[in-house]
């Protein structure tokens, strides 16, 4: 494999953040900014704008809250899974009850984190995902 082909395997992991809280978006933006191979390509607080941004940016990862300013994170999960099957879907929510987790997994979420207890684990996951070569992370999904 030529050196340029090896470099092409390692690309920035593009992340879309869908969160209704401006303060939490700012905090998550800062956390994502500490991950060397990750890039926050867009953020929004509502489902309609998120659908548009998914299509526009084709992110590798979407981080989705269930409660949004308008629309539903659950409906967004269904849309993302159907229209972007290779995308990694992460739910980060305060609605951490078992029935929400089960519904999110059913709709295609790969990971589910409770905002009040799981921010550190969420950040570690993003760092781990960003270290994978693009071809490996796609094959894992």
Describe the structure.
The chain has 141 residues and is an alpha/beta fold. It is 49% helix and 19% strand. The chain is built from seven helices and five strands; from the N terminus they run αβαβαβαβαβαα. The protein has a five-stranded parallel sheet, with helices on both faces. Strand 3 (61-64), helix 4 (73-83) and strand 4 form a beta-alpha-beta unit. Helix 3 (47-57) runs parallel beside helix 4 (73-83). The model is unreliable at 1-9 and 135-141 (pLDDT under 50).
Sequence-ordered SSE layout with sheet pairings:
Layout: H1 3-9, E1 13-18, H2 22-33, E2 38-44, H3 47-57, E3 61-64, H4 73-83, E4 88-93, H5 98-106, E5 111-114, H6 119-130, H7 134-140
Parallel strand pairs: 1-2, 1-3, 3-4, 4-5
Helix pairs in contact: 3-4
In brief:
By secondary structure, this protein is of the alpha/beta class.
Notable features of this structure?
globular; 7 helices; disordered C terminus; 141 residues; 49% helix; five-stranded parallel β-sheet; disordered N terminus; alpha/beta
Give the SSE string: HEHEHEHEHEHH
Q: Largest beta sheet, briefly?
A: 5 strands, parallel
Total DSSP E strands: 5
Gyration radius (Cα, Å) is 15 Å
Structural class: alpha/beta
What portion of the residues fall into strands of 2 or more residues? Answer: 15-25%
Low-confidence stretches: 1-9, 135-141
Rough shape? globular
Query: Quick check: average pLDDT?
Result: 88
Strand order of the largest sheet: 2-1-3-4-5
Count of helices? 7
Termini distance?
A: 24 Å
Helix content: 40-55%
């Amino acid at each position: 494999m030529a050196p340029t082909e090896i470099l092409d395997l390692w690309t920035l992991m593009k992340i879309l953040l869908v969160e209704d809280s401006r303060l939490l978006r700012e905090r998550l933006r800062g956390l994502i900014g500490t991950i060397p191979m990750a890039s926050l390509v867009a953020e929004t607080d509502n489902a309609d704008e998120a659908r548009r941004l998914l299509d526009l940016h084709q992110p590798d990862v979407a981080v989705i809250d269930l409660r949004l300013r308008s629309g539903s994170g659950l409906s967004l999960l269904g849309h993302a899974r159907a229209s972007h099957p290779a995308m990694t879907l992460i739910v980060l929510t305060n609605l951490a009850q078992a029935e929400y987790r089960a519904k999110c997994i059913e709709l295609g979420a790969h990971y589910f984190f409770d905002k009040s207890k799981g921010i550190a684990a969420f950040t570690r996951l993003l760092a781990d995902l960003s270290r994978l070569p693009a071809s490996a992370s796609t094959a894992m999904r």
